[in-house]
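Q: Here's a chain of 324 amino acids. Please give me its 3D structure as C-alpha cells.
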Amino acid sequence: MRRHLVLLLKAAISILLLYVSLRSVHLETVTERLSRLDGVWLAVALALLTAQVLLLAVRWREIAAVCGVPVALGPAVQMSFIATFFNQVLPSTVGGDAARIWLLARKGGGWATATYSVLIDRIVGVLVLALIVLACLPWTMTLIHDPVARAVLVLIGGGAVAATLVFLGIGMLPRNLLDRLMLTRHLAQASRMAWRLCRSVPAAPVVILCSVAIHVMTVAIAWCCMKAVAAPVGFAPILFLMPPVLLIATVPISIAGWGVRETSMVVAFGYAGLSPNDGLMLSILFGATSFAVGVVGGLVWIASGLKIGSLSQPRGTEALADKP
C-alpha cells in the first residue's frame, strides 16, 4: 500500500511540475518549432548518449573491480544499457541503480559488494557534477543575477561536495562505533571501499576521466538538442546551466526526473535572460533522447534473457544483508 502511495505521489509531482513549466511558456511556439526538428542533430545526440552509456560501463567496471567484483567489459556494457531502461520505467531516477545491483549480485558479485559498487559509482558521478557546477560559478554568476538563484547554485554544489565528505568520513570512524547497526556497518564498509578507490593508481584516474567526459558529453547532447530546433543558444550557456539542472534532477521525487527537469530548465533559462521556450524544448528533447536510449536498453534486456526481480521499491538495508 505504501509503495503505491509513493508512486502516486511521485506521479502527482511530475504532473504538477510539468503543468507549472508548461504554463510559463508559449505552447504554440514550442509545438511549431518541435515540428521542424533537424534529424541529423538528434542522431548526433543519440550517438553521444550511446557512447555515454559505454563510458558509464567503463567507470562502473573499474569501481566494481576495486570493490572485489571483477566484471568483463561486455557484461558491464550490457547491464548499463539495461539500467538505462529501468531509469525510464521505474518511478525514480535511481531505478537503474537498483537494476545494476540486482544483475551484478545475480552474476555472483554478492548483494553487499554489488550495492557498494553502484553506491560509489553514483556518489562519484554526483561529486564530479557538483565540482563542475562550482568550477563554473564565476561564469554562471555573469548569466544569473538573482541573489536567490545564486544562493541555490552554491547550496546544491557545496551540499553535494559536503555530503561526499561526510560519506568518506564515515569510513574513518572507529569500527566499534559503527558495527553495532547493520546500516552504519555497511555504510562504513562502502566508505572504506571508496577510500580504496581513491588510493588505486590504475582505477582512480580512469574513473575521474570517465566522469568528466560523461558530463561534458551531457552538455554536448543538450547543445545538439538546441541545434535540432535552431535555438539561438550557444554552447557556453548550456555548459553553465545544464549541470545545476541535472544535479537537482538527481533528487528522486518524480518519475524518471520528468517535471523536475523541465521546471528547473525553464526557471534556469529565465534567470539567465534566455527564452523559457528554449529551456522547455531542451528539456523535452533531452528527456526524449534519453527515453529512446532506454528503449534500446529494454531490447538489450529482452535479448539477454536475464530475469530481474521486483525493483519497484529498491531495498535499502535488505540489499546489504549479506556481508562482503
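Q: Can you summarize the key feature?
A: Residues 34-309 form one domain.
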